[in-house]
Amino acid sequence: MKLKILAKWTGLSLLVLFSLTLIFSPLLTQLFVAWRTNQSRNFEADLAGNFNRWIDVDFPADLDIQPPQLVETLTTNVDKGMIIANIRVNSVGIDLPVFKGVEHLMSGAGTVIPRRQPGLNNFVVAGHNMLNRNLLFAPLQRVQIGDTVEIDNGHNVYKFAVDNIFRVHKSQVEVLENTATPMLTLITCESAMITPYRMIVTAQPLFDVEQSG
Question: Domain spanning 2-211: which superfamily?
Answer without folding.
Answer: Sortase (2.40.260.10)
